[in-house]
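Record Ankyrin repeat-containing domain protein, 230 aa.
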Amino acid sequence: LHLAVENNDLSSVRLLLDHGADIDAKHGDDGLRKSALHDSCCRGRFDMVSLLLERGANMEVYGHDGTALGFALHACQMDVIRLLLQKGANVEAPGYELEDKTPLHVAAEAGNTGIVALLLDAGADPAARWDQDERQPLHSAVWNNDLPTVRLLLDRGANIDAKYGYEAWFLFPLHEACGCGHLEMVSLLLERGANMELRGHHGTALGFAFLVRKMDVIKLLLQKGAKAEV
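=>
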């Protein structure tokens, strides 16, 4: 079955399934195991994915990239992602070897606004958190200076002042943007109401900008009324 799927041989796959092949059987090394559906998803084989789903393939079986949705996400297979979501794939299913990131975290990190929109439309939580730092999709999009994805996440309810980090080391989206010197991102976050006076491990947003000597960001923050005490 795996060889037939790899060759995108729909007729052979139908025949094998008709004669009792295990549709959810996995293959590969211990750390790289995947099912026929996983293989089809990461290759973007829409017709094969459709066939396997029609024949009862389990979308929630885990492989090394998580569920079928995870495999499609990592290969940026948008049509397959849309199909899986239409068929009821778990939009919050964490990745298996990806520190339990949700699909939305993965899409935001990849900077694929279209896939982020698909996941949000399917009910993904824009405030989903992962690992001990409680990092949210918005933090990844800000770090990547991905203005379209940040706008979309904020439009869908992401918390503009969401904190991530731990006891002695934490920051907010505006701090990230200031520390990276992303002037347009800083401007967007301020326009959307980000709090300039929240304090992270390097003080306020102004403190983060001073730390990395981003003069254009410093000037903008002061123009917007940031307090000089960092």
